[in-house]
Amino acid sequence: MSQAEDIESVDEDGVIESVSGPVVTAADLDARMNDVVYVGDEGLMGEVIEIEGNLTTIQVYEETSGVGPGEPVQNTGEPLSVDLGPGMLDSIYDGVQRPLDVLEEKMGTAFLDRGVDAPGIDLEKKWDFEPEVTEGDTVEPGDVVGVVEETITIDHKVMVPPDYEGGEVTNVESGEYTVEETIVELDNGEEIQMHQEWPVREARPAGEKETPTEPLVTGQRIQDGLFPLAKGGTAAIPGPFGSGKTVTQQQLAKWSDADIVVYIGCGERGNEMTEVIEDFPELPDPQTGNPLMARTCLIANTSNMPVAARESCIYTGITIAEYYRDMGYDVALMADSTSRWAEAMREISSRLEEMPGEEGYPAYLAAALSEFYERAGKFQLINGGEGSISVVGAVSPPGGDFSEPVTQNTLRIVKTFWALDADLAERRHFPAINWNESYSLYKDQLDPWWESNVESDWPEVRQWAVDVLDEEDELQEIVQLVGKDALPEDQQLTLEVARYLREAWLQQNALHDVDTYCEPDKTYRMLQAIKTFSDEAFEALEAGVPVEEIQDVDAAPRLNRMGTAEEWNEFIDEIENDLQEQLRALY
Ligand SMILES: Nc1ncnc2c1ncn2[C@@H]1O[C@H](COP(=O)(O)OP(=O)(O)O)[C@@H](O)[C@H]1O
Ligand SMILES: [Mg+2]
């Protein structure tokens, strides 16, 4: 059945005047900006993006081939919204929240066919509702009225919608309900169901933003150790093709200690998303041992899917993230890649014949990016609680040139910058995050967390590593001119220590069972072990031992096996002992 038959037309139908790819112009349509409309005989879903006199311009979320002038356009009178409620976790959606598995069953194809409508959440499924309010209680917008077990991992908090007035509870009952049934009634006549709609282009209300003080632990040494992201923070991963953007994003989705993960596959190749869709349902959640999908919502709009839905998938994703934030959860959102989103904006803007800005991107590119990242943060909630959204966007600059507009505009906004580097990737140094170019503005505010949860001297040990890597960077220039052997012995030793920092600590193999995840304690211990080597080695050097002999102690190369060591505590103890013994035996 087509959508056009499904919906009640609230206004007079319009008539298609012209079709240009995803952009359709209609005449005589009574519409407001951002209204959702159904276009053509097949009822393809679209959104009003421009109104000029009698002409309405619509971006259509489905392929428009074969759609032509004279066909009708119906207005729903509603803005593009997501349906928020239990059942979103463990789901895979397209850019306008149509579930891909449901659609697949209906259409027998992996991706969407045209004019198919499917609700974002299951309207028939019954959920076991446990009230947390009783009759006579007063509730306000955002307050939790009860809980359903959405998945084995996550309790879904049913909240008074933010646009309600609130009041006294006159009726509430526990039991099995669908998301559309009323579970709580208020004295002012308001009825609360387990689902609520929210327009995707409007941030859900929240209180003040707070300064984030907890890291989003990624389990990746270079990220946690040198360039940490806060829970509620923003990060960008720019890098050329093949440098590791997708692997990095997927590592975050798998290992980061967020309660909820929203993963947006935006405009990248279809097979990458297929991998995610096939992989993720098999993977366990390292925090709970439950399936990873029990805390994950996937949104897929791959390069073979319609371009306008790519523009919307970012908004669909962030709105879903806000809804779980409102429950008090720490949500992490990954978007791979924001460049494809920007390109979708560019394509639509050029079809509208808008005045182009830099490199053909619309003049509002910077504003769109900053509005998106603005929706990240650690928030006080309207119900008095706290919740956070961390946002990590991959950026794919053409040719890996970071001076292009999407990278530059993103850098002005985000506070953590993980710069992927083609040379490192080529040398198979993974993650190929360039430690000279990357930065995190959260470092200082997260130190107290490390000091109390990991080790009190963490800031000093990390600073030591940063200094050694900086020194290596400077020495490299000389080495290139005159060779390593021309350096004084202490500088040669510094290079040796830096090599272990790079190979044993910064490198981490996402494809290795053990090395793929490194808890903060292990990140610290590994670094400490390299520092032990350094301290002992410099003592030996001072006592007159030649640098060649120091480099040759057989405990040193074992540093490179710390990452993959399963019993790492014992393994590192042993290396530290042996290093001490062997280096002291030299003098
Ligand atoms: N952390 C990592 N550990 C091991 N291999 C990696 C890592 N990051 C990237 N790679 C390798 O690089 C390849 C390309 O990475 P990918 O994330 O697909 O790049 P991009 O998304 O930037 O095009 C991967 O298939 C993998 O072989
Ligand atoms: Mg990729």
From TrEMBL:
Keywords recorded for this protein, A-Z: ATP synthesis, ATP-binding, Cell membrane, Hydrogen ion transport, Hydrolase, Ion transport, Membrane, Nucleotide-binding, Translocase, Transport
> Which reaction is catalysed here?
ATP + H2O + 4 H(+)(in) = ADP + phosphate + 5 H(+)(out)
Residues annotated as domain ATP synthase A/B type C-terminal: 448-549
Q: Where is the ATPase F1/V1/A1 complex alpha/beta subunit N-terminal domain?
A: 16-77
Subcellular localization is given as: Cell membrane
Provide a Gene Ontology MF annotation, just one.
ATP binding
Residues engaged in binding ATP: 239-246
Q: Where is the ATPase F1/V1/A1 complex alpha/beta subunit nucleotide-binding domain?
A: 219-440
Protein origin, superkingdom: Archaea
EC number assigned by the record: 7.1.2.2
Question: What residues does the ATPsynthase alpha/beta subunit barrel-sandwich domain cover?
Answer: 119-201
Q: Which InterPro entries match?
A: ATP-synt_VA_C (IPR055190), ATP-synth_a_Xtn (IPR031686), ATP_synth_asu-like_sf (IPR023366), ATP_synth_asu_arc (IPR005726), ATPase_a/bsu_AS (IPR020003), ATPase_F1/V1/A1_a/bsu_N (IPR004100), ATPase_F1/V1/A1_a/bsu_N_sf (IPR036121), ATPase_F1/V1/A1_a/bsu_nucl-bd (IPR000194)
* Pfam family name, one: ATP-synt_ab_Xtn
Gene Ontology BP term (one)? proton motive force-driven plasma membrane ATP synthesis
Q: Which HAMAP family match?
A: ATP_synth_A_arch (MF_00309)
Quaternary arrangement and interactors, per the entry? Has multiple subunits with at least A(3), B(3), C, D, E, F, H, I and proteolipid K(x).
Q: What family does this chain come from, according to its entry?
A: Belongs to the ATPase alpha/beta chains family.
The family database entries (PANTHER family) matched by this protein are listed as:
H(+)-TRANSPORTING TWO-SECTOR ATPASE, V-TYPE PROTON ATPASE CATALYTIC SUBUNIT A
The task this protein performs is described as: Component of the A-type ATP synthase that produces ATP from ADP in the presence of a proton gradient across the membrane. The A chain is the catalytic subunit.
Q: What protein name applies here?
A: A-type ATP synthase subunit A
